[in-house]
Structures are given as C-alpha cells and as structure tokens.
Write a structure and sequence with these properties.
Layout lengths: L1 H41 L2 E6 L1 E2 L3 E2 L10 H12 L4 E6 L1 H10 L4 E6 L2 H6 E17 L18 E4 L6 H5 L4 E5 L2 H9 L5 E5 H10 L6 E3 L5 E10 L3 H17 L1 H8 L2
Parallel strand pairs: 1-4, 1-5, 7-8, 7-9
Antiparallel strand pairs: 2-3, 5-11, 6-9, 6-10, 6-11
Helix pairs in contact: 2-8, 2-9, 6-7
C-alpha cells in the first residue's frame, strides 16, 4: 500500500513538472509572437532599387551612391519610421530576383498593375507618373486612339518592365532587347525602333541628355497615369504596415511634396 502511494506521488509530481514545462513553453512561444514585429523592425532592412531609372533612381560612373527622386522619397519614409536600413541600386532584373528570393526586405519602384499587386505586397503609391509613347519625328505617327493603331510599328520597351495591363497583353510588334530606359531612347534615336513606351519625365530626361529634343515627338494621349509603389514579399504586413504609416504621415505633413518640387 505504501509503495502504491509513493508511486502515485511520483507520477503526480512528474505530471506536474511536465505540465509546468509545457505551460512555460507556450508562454515563451506566445511572447516570441508578440515580439516578432519589434525584432523585424530592429533588424537592418536591405532596400534595393533600379540603378538605371533616372531621374527617379540611378548611380553615376563616378560612384555607386544612390540618387534620384524615388531614392529620396524612400529614405525620408525610412527615417520617419525610425527603421535601420541600407539602400543599394542594382539592375532591375536582379532587383526583382532578390525580392522574389527573400534576399531583401523591400524593393522599389513597381508599377501598380493588377499583376504586380497579385505578385507582391505593394505600399503607396509614393508618386504617380504619366506613361506615354514617344516616336522620332521621322515617323508618321502623331497620335493614337486604340492600341491597334500601333500595330504597324515596332515598339521598344525595357525587358522585364510592366507598363499597363492591356498594353502588356496586346498583340503588338515589340522589341524588348533594351536593358534600361537610356538604351531604349538611344535605340529610338538610332532608328532601330519606331516607338518607345515609358515614363514621360524619364524619357525626356534621357532625350535631353543626348540634346535630341527636336528629334522626338511625344504622342498626346498617354497610355496611363501609373501609380508607383514599393514592394514587399506577398503577405509581409509586418514590414509593410510601419512603412505605410510613415508614408502617410509624411504625405499629410507635406514633406513628400517638398521632395517632388526639388526634382521638377
């Protein structure tokens, strides 16, 4: 009888210890979940953008220091959010691969197309740009009404860029050999393509760079007024939410407008 009582006591003590350890483990797990957003915010964010997207994001031959309107906008938001970060610019295809693999916390800038919104967690827009068609003055095309109006022409676009959903899916003659918008403008001026598509401010930036303002024509009707976003991996609201909140604070304070004005 005494042996049974002692055995029962030992079993009860063992079960009590097991339950205590289990409860402690559950408390620790719950605490980790609560602290996770703070841990993510405390870690240095790796932020990347396109190195050949002047005047929005670019580097020069002198150094690899990130410059441009979008660079200043992103840096202002990160500083407002008090988030530690490092920002570097790379070729656009590499930027997308780094985000897709989870090698970076955030990338910019992405067109606000339905396809991009399905693929990434987009926050913004940080700005809006007018996407237009540009031709050389040697081309007879002066405007367009329907995308079919462009079918006789070879349209140059940058490989890997998204422009506008209907245009991206349209059955048109395309040349996607350009690696960046600067190369696209050079191809147009050299007569290798008939039309190019891109951001109005950006295309004119590269045209002026080559002193060719009198050689090109921008068609009156824009393709789209396209909002531009920063992107996180799909579902990463832990990072997206504090960035979105800081962006909105700067928008309300007029800080973003002040940055825009420096570049226009």
């Amino acid at each position: 009888m005494q042996a049974r009582t002692a055995l029962a006591s030992i079993n009860n003590e063992y079960l009590t210890r097991v339950n205590t350890h289990r409860e402690n483990a559950m408390r620790i797990a719950a605490l980790c979940l609560l602290l996770m957003p703070w841990v993510v915010q405390a870690e240095e964010w790796k932020v990347v953008g396109d190195e050949q997207f002047a005047p929005y994001s670019f580097v020069t031959i002198e150094d690899d220091l990130p410059r441009g309107l979008d660079v200043e906008l992103v840096e202002a938001v990160m500083q407002e959010a008090k988030l530690p970060y490092s920002l570097r610019l790379y070729p656009w295809e590499r930027v997308k691969r780094m985000l897709d693999r989870g090698d970076v916390a955030m990338a910019f800038q992405f067109a606000g197309t339905p396809e991009r919104m399905q693929q990434y967690e987009l926050v913004g827009p940080i700005r809006t740009g007018s996407t237009v068609f540009m031709t050389s003055r040697k081309t007879n095309l002066t405007d367009w009404a329907e995308l079919d109006d462009l079918s006789p022409y070879i349209i140059g676009q940058v490989r890997g860029y998204a422009y506008q959903s209907d245009f991206d899916k349209a059955d048109l003659r395309r040349d996607s050999s350009a690696q960046n918008p600067r190369q696209l403008v050079s191809m147009l001026l050299a007569g290798r393509i008939d039309v190019v598509v891109g951001d109005r401010v950006q295309l004119m930036y590269f045209v002026r760079e080559q002193r060719a303002e009198q050689s090109v024509r921008i068609l009156a009707k824009p393709l789209v007024e396209m909002p531009r976003y920063v992107a996180f991996t799909k579902g990463d609201r832990t990072r997206a939410d504090p960035f979105a909140a800081a962006l909105e604070r700067l928008r309300q304070a007029g800080t973003l407008d002040a940055i825009y004005q420096r570049w226009h």
